[in-house]
Specification:
Layout: H1 17-20, H2 26-44, H3 50-68, H4 76-92, H5 103-122, H6 125-140
Organism: Paraburkholderia tropica
Protein name: Fis family transcriptional regulator
Length: 152
């Protein structure tokens, strides 16, 4: 005997424009920032994995996208350097997919992590939503990086 679930087809209420223009509440912003910092700490020790480093790459891209919405002033080269450092870390992973971010790589990622913290506490929800939507579109694309190509 199968059970059918009553699923409402009514659309979810949309958020008010005023709500979307406010930053995240402190608890949510703190939890999200803490998740980034714990992932980073794990990857600086021997507890890092390719999946965790990939989460840090996503954080770099989200931070870039929020900056594109007007919240941040980090040079594009810093994003590119952090991306390259994390990709190098992933490429070094062995068969067990253990990753460890080196001190040099860590120094390249830390400024982006700090900007991500600031954005989580100050940027309006709408900018964060747009960043997540852009990240989703990028992840569905065949592009290798969402960062603008820098001329050498």
């Amino acid at each position: 005997m199968s059970r059918s679930k009553n699923v409402s087809t009514a659309p979810l209420p949309s958020a008010s424009p005023q709500f979307l223009q406010r930053p995240l509440d402190e608890k949510t912003a703190t939890e999200m920032a803490l998740a980034h910092h714990l992932t980073f700490a794990a990857c600086k020790s021997w507890a890092g994995t390719t999946r965790l480093v990939s989460e840090l790459v996503r954080m770099v891209y989200l931070t870039f996208y929020v900056q594109c919405e007007g919240y941040g002033d980090t040079e594009i080269a810093q994003f590119a350097n952090a991306e390259a450092a994390l990709e190098t870390c992933i490429l070094r992973a062995g068969d067990d997919e253990t990753c460890r971010i080196s001190p040099v790589e860590s120094a390249l990622v830390e400024p982006i992590l700090q900007q991500a913290d600031t954005q989580l506490f100050l940027a309006p929800r709408q900018a964060l939503i747009e960043a997540y939507q852009r990240l989703d579109r990028f992840l569905r694309s065949s592009n290798e990086s969402p960062l603008p190509q820098l001329s050498m």
